[in-house]
Amino acid sequence: MEDISGWADWMLVRVDIPCSAENKEISLILRLDKHWGFTGVASTSKIYARAHLLGLDICPAEVGPTLRLQYLNQPANDHFQLTM
User: Fold this and answer.
1) Domain that residue 10 falls in
2) What is the pTM of this model?
3) Is there a domain that residue 78 lies in?
């Protein structure tokens, strides 16, 4: 596996992430900050509420690490924030 950031390494090694025995297909939607309709910085609860209004669900905890492990050529300055 290619090098990963210290933050990603910390999450993958130290955080207890439940792994489902069941394989699931999950669709992820990329939304830039401006797409959420907020004019300033929004709290996590406001982002979750907006996602709920848009019919979106939060990701299971294993989605972040799985996405990182599958995105092998991720550029150093490319990052995502997932609602988990």
Assistant:
1) 6-18+30-70
2) 0.56
3) no
